[in-house]
Design a protein that fits this description.
- There is one protein chain.
- This protein is α+β, with helices and mostly antiparallel strands and 148 residues long.
- The chain is built from 3 helices and 6 strands, in the order E-H-H-E-E-E-E-E-H.
- Strands 1, 2, 3, 4, 5 and 6 form a 6-stranded antiparallel sheet that branches.
- The longest helix has 19 residues.
- The radius of gyration is 16 Å and the shape is globular.
Length: 148
């Protein structure tokens, strides 16, 4: 059974970290590969909240695959910046999840980047999409934003 999501209207924080000098490119700001890496770490924390842990996936012969990703870079991040990512589920389907990660520069308070992803649940043996477990679908639906 997955852990109960926090009772809040704010999306959960799924990543916190720092921009290190080696994350920066020749122009002095964080290189795009590190944005993707930090978003990927946030994805696995979001999946954990839903009950999709690496151990569970391995034991069941299942996996998750990103089949679509769109990234918007809003503001540059420099070495020393501390960032957090909040994740919001947008759609829950039988075999796929649609979600958004928003990366914020914690000191400045502005959004640095945003990514939208579509992830598909896979049978790793058959190499085909398969239905998400019922408890995962329920946990995902519980994290969908509700109309106020």
């Amino acid at each position: 059974m997955p852990p109960t999501p926090p009772p809040t209207h704010e999306p959960p924080i799924t990543y916190r970290g720092t921009v290190y000098p080696w994350h920066c490119d020749h122009m002095g700001h964080m290189n795009v590969m590190w944005y993707v890496g930090k978003f990927d770490e946030a994805t696995w924390q979001l999946f954990r909240l839903l009950g999709l842990t690496p151990a569970r996936l391995r034991e069941a012969g299942r996996g998750m695959a990103a089949v679509e990703q769109q990234i918007t870079y809003a503001r540059e991040l420099m070495a020393g910046a501390t960032v957090s990512i909040r994740s919001t589920l947008r759609e829950v389907h039988a075999k796929r999840l649609v979600f958004v990660h928003e990366m914020v520069d914690d000191e400045a308070g502005h959004v640095a980047a945003r990514t939208a992803l579509v992830a598909v649940h896979l049978d790793t043996r058959a190499r085909r999409a398969c239905v998400l477990p019922e408890d995962v679908i329920a946990a995902a639906r519980a994290l969908l934003p509700t109309a106020c």
